[in-house]
Amino acid sequence: MSDFDRSNDSGRPTGTAVSPADPPSGPAAPGRFPDVPSIELDGVTFEYPDGTRALDGVSLRIEPGEVVAIVGQNGSGKSTLVKHLNGLLRPASGRVLLGGRDIRDAHVAGLAGRVGLAFQNPDRQLFAGRVSAEVEFGPRNLGLRGAELQRAVAAALEAVGLAGEAAANPYDLGYSRRKLLAIASVLAMRTPVLVFDEPTTGQDARGVACVRSVVAGAVAEGRTVIAISHDMRFVAECFGRVVAMRAGRVVLDGSPSEVFAESHWSELRATYLEPPIAAVVGARLGLGSTPTASGLIAAARAALDGRPAAPGPADSGPNR
Question: Tell me, what's the pLDDT at 21?
């Protein structure tokens, strides 16, 4: 194991109470992952061989244990950005730091034990002939063996509702279940940082509930969770911080209450996104920023009682 692989940040922030409008952006208390690293992009640019400038001076810091959604239209640079976090892509200029260390010269194999990435298209990730072998591959390459390996595989399959499919061929599963299998293959690696690219796309209500449960479980353990999504309800209800991108740049960064506030709708629509329906209803009723159904209900009850809705820390704190 390299010195980089052993590196970590100390002093993870503890979480705070939140209002119904905003889920936590960090863990409520330290979990099983005391060595969760910070992530920092410092002026990162990236161009593809055809000259497409996918990232244009992106600077972004994600603290240990934060729960961050990245949103924006197709081609805005979201997937390109997250592929920099585990070394699949390298910046043309700028730096990517994991736990305070520049990963420019770090091997992808070493980074894989720190940052787990489930691709948007599972068929670009899956290759094994059995579901169990697919999920075993990552943790086996990280050194897990025997009973420890089997426990990791079983827990990951259980988390995504595929416990009964261990002997199946991955391509006998439907597309949505293959996406869940790709998530399981990352969960089994027990990385302190989890990155999911469009995890709810193609999922039915049960599949979306499963993804929500995976995110909640990772948050409870204190892991950092980053997800790319076009599902604004999922984003508003499960993530404490929202980063909106357009043309390779960050255009909005804040809590769901901040990013989905009516004052930012024009920026959202410039990225071809619409705010969650709860935010629209709350604005039309003059209730303020209510990006979630629970936040909308709380604000409506407060209005009926003749008292202001209590702001959460993300509402009253400074912009990131």
Answer: 45
Q: Are 56 and 248 in contact (CB under 8 A)?
A: yes
Tell me the two tokens of residue 229.
Answer: 């999504």
Closest CA to 6 of 35, 32, 33: 35
How confident is the model over 271-282, as pLDDT tens digits?
A: 999 999 999 999
Please give the pLDDT value at position 306.
76
Helix axes 146-159, 175-187, angle to 10 degrees: 140
Indicate the residue type of 167. Answer: A
> Do residues 28 and 240 touch, judged by C-beta distance below 8 A?
no
Can you say whether residue 87 is alpha, beta or left, with left for phi > 0 and alpha for psi between -120 and 50 degrees?
left
Contact in structure between 250 and 265 (CB atoms under 8 Å)? no
State the Cα–Cα distance between residues 185 and 112, nearest whole angstrom.
12
Q: Does the pLDDT at position 226 exceed 80? A: yes
* Calpha distance 82→268 (Å, rounded): 20
Is residue 73 a contact partner of residue 272, using CB atoms and an 8 Å limit?
A: yes
pTM assigned to the model? 0.84
- The residues facing 56 across adjacent strands are 45
Are 254 and 318 in contact by the 8 Å Cβ rule? The answer is: no
- Of the CA atoms within 13 Å of residue 83, those in its CB half-sphere come to 15
Structure tokens at 177: 């279940």
Question: What stretches of 160-204 show up as alpha helix (H) in DSSP?
Answer: 175-187
